[in-house]
Input
Amino acid sequence: MGLVVQKFGGTSVADSAKILAAARRAVQARELGNQVLVVVSARGHTTDELIELAREISDNPPARELDMLLATGEQVSVALMAMAIISLGTPAISFTGAQIGLVTDSFHTRARIRNISTERMQQALGDGKIVIVAGFQGVDEHANITTLGRGGSDTTAVALAAVLGASVCEIYTDVDGVYTTDPRVVPEARKIDRISYDEMLELASLGAGVMHSRSIEFAKNYAVPIHVRSSFTDAPGTWIVDELDARRLGARVTGAALAKEEARITIKGVPDRPGVVHAIFKRIAAANVVVDMIVQNVSTASKTEVSFTVAKSDLETTLEAAREAAEETGASGTTHDAEVAKISVVGLGMRTHAGVAVAMFEALADAGVNIHMITTSEIKISVLVARSAAVEALRAVHRAFQLEKGDIELEPPSSGGLRKKPTVAPASEVDLGDSTGAERVGRGMEDLVVSGVELDDTQARIALFGVPDLPGRAANVFRAVADAGVFVDMIVQNIGEKGDSLLSFTVPRDQAERARAAVNAAGIQEVSVEPALAKLSVIGVGMRSHAGVAARMFSALAERGINVNLINTSEVRINVGTDIVRGREGLECLRLAFATGSSNRD
Ligand code: ASP
Ligand code: MG
Output
């Protein structure tokens, strides 16, 4: 008998009629011969109302007591859901997080799961009951109630699906799936049938907004297939699955996202020597700020600029840390821009289709949008633009990739439909050890998982100087390079010291001279070619939601005196460029720092 986990969000249990409708779905799944576990959120706007209530009492409610309060929302829901299911004639039992032994760390209001005991749930399931578990909550080792952060019920559901070996985790919500972009911003956005974990990770934290991104990290780590669907219809929604099951024929881009409330900070005139970026990001991590894009480009006269983005609301705190870091490292100062937004396109197809970057930059150029910063990964390109141009830019990009057109053929499934994956932790109790310190890079169930470190020493870097910071420049450059038949890997664009733009990119070594000629022909004469560089990458999930991953990477390199001369990041990887002769050593020290297996892409 298979196990199905069904999670109902706040809107799906907002009133008694909806609770009964959700209960009927659970009973239906049970009648089809499945064991059924239901996870519920607080009803409707309950969590918001509870937070509001707390604020009426105190400007600064203690986090422990806030968790005590917020956890009541889900407790109401589980009890009502159990009553509803029992009223339909099916046995059911509700549990709080504490009752099923969902143990977290002690970071109130943003706790992470450490382990879950499955015994009590399994017992009840074995007795033929539908088990209903309160989402979003747990207890720490001292039995204090904790919560997992807003939207955390998704994470509870996926975690339970993982430890119980469920065949699917169904997420019932008020939208009918994941869209190519936010349909409120771009009305012609379409529902995506299948998307891979990595694509979803790149989209989720960027405001696709459908799911808690930590739940996707979890699903990827434990190979849990997710089905996001509407609780109000029977139409299939979006499957979030393994890459092999998600691949589409011919599609270059799967979705586009907008992160509207970003702020950019640049540390100017940073001395180009080992240990400097480490000193910077150690300070930022100590301020407990989540850093999004990080970009460092080629240095001129032994000075470089390091730019990064944070949530706009974190700007003040970050600036303070950035100014201290500038002083400590002997940099010349900081600049910032609080009025920026990030546009990203994501797609597995980028790995095999050249020209995605060109198409994106041309769409932006045609819309008259200036690009401030660029960073890329294997499956994602992100640009930073003025917030006032963001919506227009997103629309232009969505149109350029024809994301409104459906009917893209899926590659034939690798082994006949969606496969049930073995779960990683089938034991009755998942003992995942202690997590350590404020960085939380320990060995808890939900801790950072670095899946690998990588060395690519097959590339050359082309750096362009004197590129005016105007719309259309990046498009021109990459059009010329693409027309010359050069395959571009990483693209890095940073803000220069004088507000000019610093653009560089990497290509296979034997194509470097061809790339240089193409750039010259496009009218840019000041070009430097570094014929060989070592690209070191840390790849994993949770890179961004875990403060301090970048700091740890830079620290390991700094300890060895390895200079970082290029940085580019995405949600699932941090890439740095270093001197080619230090490549192997760099790989080795990262492997030790993250205690993981390595791979060498040559
Ligand atoms: N009720 C919590 C919230 O609103 C958790 C959830 O719904 O996922 O954030
Ligand atoms: Mg939610």
About this structure: The chain has a mean pLDDT of 87.
